[in-house]
Amino acid sequence: MARKIIIDTDPGQDDAVAILLALASPELEVLGLSVVAGNVGLDHTQRNARMICELAGRPDLPVHAGCDAPLQRKLITAEHVHGKTGLDGVTLPEPAMPLAPGHAVDFLIETLRREKPGSVTLVPIGPLTNIATAFRRAPDIVPRVREIVLMGGAYFEVGNITPAAEFNIHVDPEAAKIVFASGAALTVMPLDVTHRALTSRAWVETMRGMGRIGQAVAGWTDFFERYDREKYGSQGAPLHDPCTIAWLLDPELFSGRLINVEIETRGEYTQGMTVADWWGVSGRPANATFIREVKRDAFFALLTERIRALDQRAG
Ligand code: BDR
Ligand code: CA
């Protein structure tokens, strides 16, 4: 039976690839998308989410708009990385599918209460505002979550939005703190691993040689890559968010350690830092599997196979 997931997202080019990978994969049943503000404002992220569903041939998928600002702070966005719309690099038609009725937080709560306990996995790939709000409002849903597999944080590789912090956690550290302290089983894809999931020119050209879905992936990657090339001098774009879905499909592609991770909310220079106790020096209980390595070639082979299949299916 396919594993049920909800993707909580702020698309974002790499979010888009993650969503496509999930929709391409028969092992996963995507129950819906809960959308949050992050890379850009909610007006763009909810529209982008619908455009991605339509591109994938899934206008039936419920897309719920959620929180438009962090729990306690002003929203920080990343147009400098993702462009004005958050999904620059490809021109897609205005989405015809409407937003699903109801706030994303209600969707999360109602779905977790309705589905069998322990059957729904949450995949947050943006700031954790929707998830934390749902947990705070309905603590009874926390033990019903099968697992949370999120993109966020950084430790050895340190930050991308500040020297100490990764974007998703930095934007809403109070929300991250709630999720990391929730007691739910947590797998974390930090920059330490996602900066190893770098696209190559050959892979992007393979995508471009496919149908319109592969071509969209190539266009987004081209756009996204220019930022990383200028900033890090790296060859290729890090496919941060698809690491979460790839882990669900094949955890053997990754390795990490079950450790204690705390979220810094008060530091003068370290807001949103994920303090990862890799060596177990704090004595604090483990709360997250912190991933550090990915088998890069196998990761991209999986992506290629799935995007090709989706492209063929969508015709
Ligand atoms: C994370 O922030 C966003 O820019 C990406 O979509 C990803 O979720 C990487 O720091
Ligand atoms: Ca994202």
TrEMBL record:
InterPro entries linked: I/U_nuclsd_hydro_CS (IPR015910), Inosine/uridine_hydrolase_dom (IPR001910), IUNH (IPR023186), Ribo_hydro-like (IPR036452)
Classification via PROSITE patterns: IUNH
Pfam families: IU_nuc_hydro
GO molecular function annotation: purine nucleosidase activity; uridine nucleosidase activity
Keywords: Glycosidase, Hydrolase
Entry superkingdom: Bacteria
Domain (Inosine/uridine-preferring nucleoside hydrolase) ranges: 5-300
Gene3D superfamilies (alphabetical): Ribonucleoside hydrolase-like
GO biological processes: purine nucleoside catabolic process
A single Gene Ontology CC term: cytosol
Stored PANTHER family: INOSINE-URIDINE PREFERRING NUCLEOSIDE HYDROLASE, URIDINE NUCLEOSIDASE
Protein name: Purine nucleosidase
